Amino acid sequence: MDFLNEIVIPANDTHLQVLKFVLFISLALFLPYMGATIGGTIFSVYFNRKGKNNRRTIYYRFACDILDKLIFSKGVGLGLGVVPVLSATFVYMQFMYETKTAVVGLMIVSTILYYLGITLVYKYKSNFDIEEVVDSLKSVIESDKHEGQIPEEVKEYEAGLKQVKSTFGGWGLVCLIVASLFFVGGTTLISNPSAWEHASPIIYLFSIPVLINFLFFICASLAFTGIAVLFYFFGWQGGIKDRSDNYKAYVKKFAGSLAFYSTIILPVLFLASFLTYHTHAFSSSLFIIGALALGTILLTANFLYALIRNSEIKYSGAMFYLMIATFSLMSLKDVSAINAALKEQFHKVHILAEEYEKKHNKVAVVDTGINGEEIFNAKCSACHKFDQKLVGPPYKETVPKYNDNVKKLAAFIYNPVKVNPDYPAMPNQGLKPKEAEAVAQYIITHLKEVK
Ligand code: HEC
User: Fold this and answer.
1) Is residue 390 within 6 Å of ligand 1 at its C-beta?
2) Pocket of ligand 1 contains residue 362 by CB under 6 Å
3) Options 1.10.10.10, 1.10.760.10, 1.10.4100.10, 2.60.120.10; which CATH number does 372-450 get?
4) Which of 120, 216, 242, 330 is the most core-located residue (most Cβ within 10 A)?
5) Is pLDDT above 50 for 336?
6) Is the dihedral of CA 121, 256, 289, 208 positive or negative?
């Protein structure tokens, strides 16, 4: 992917620090949102199937509610789901500057698939609303005094709708899951330099480290989905109101067990994912972050246990925020591992950045805050062109002898002296020293561009 090196420039040290921060923020936004989206979609698709034949079952209601509560609008989906992966991709691109690995390729595929997945899932979601409209239409016809028969077209339309809806839901889910595998693959690969030369990125996706991290991500997503359901259905703003007790009890039991069982598997997968790290990735901060994350996971499990035993729902808020904290710690852990594993790579990028700066900044750009181009247009262009003789000589003949020395050229412009006998003397333009410098800078830079 050599073209990538064309669109990014090597990052210098401060720039690299900023990029690490951007990466952290992107992951911390992305992981919980995508976790809830994937979990919500899995269960919506599942319950939609289960309640397919009767729209008034709690299954069907739940299939609809879970998406409503967990994934908000499409704008949020793109903002919290696709934009962060895109910026993580861009950060990886800069980290991997001039290094041949599949990291960026995996990330790009992942971004595209997430975009596709989110789009399909929102289409799926909006079909619930259409179904509802068709449904109320049907009940109007049914309750019609004249014992209205449901017209064939409505029945057909409804059957088609159902079909399309499950297609959207199913494929959306597949896209999101495959996208996650690519995403986890890219993030695992970047923190493992010894695998950079790995023969095939696709085979790498099925290597032990990637699979463990992927399982961890899915398991964390399920745990978070369960907790988010508890929070949004029962905690947030007093919870849902217009649903039967039967429904509430079912949702509480389902979400509670889902969250509990996924949360108790999490520490095992978490430790396993630690073991898959390359030795280069370890650092003391990685262990501290890991210990904290383990702490938040265990605390969450503890609250969930209370919930399962006593049907105690009041901690749903605490659990929700603990899970958000866990995801932030996971993001920090990834950044820290990448930071340690890429020490050599960063050094290489640092050297490239210095070379790049030397090459491109031969002309030290002095930013005086004064616009040299404007001064040129106002005060010089009447007598000068870059490549043609007017009253004064063309710059392309006279300026090169200043050898990019802005100060020396500015000195002439500030106080012109007689130079070439073929021309009259240049009248003093009455510029201030700073203005002379700005216009000198402009002429030198622009001359390079037109050449
Ligand atoms: C009224 C016409 C006129 C204006 C306006 C004018 N110049 Fe000149 N400029 C000349 C002439 C004539 C020469 C040739 C002078 C000589 O060779 O002694 C010259 C020469 C120069 C040179 C070449 C110096 C060298 O070392 O050979 C530079 C650079 C230059 N002008 C820059 C500027 C800039 C910058 C401005 C605007 C701030 C400007 N000029 C405005 C007429 C003008």
Assistant:
1) no
2) no
3) 1.10.760.10
4) 330
5) yes
6) negative
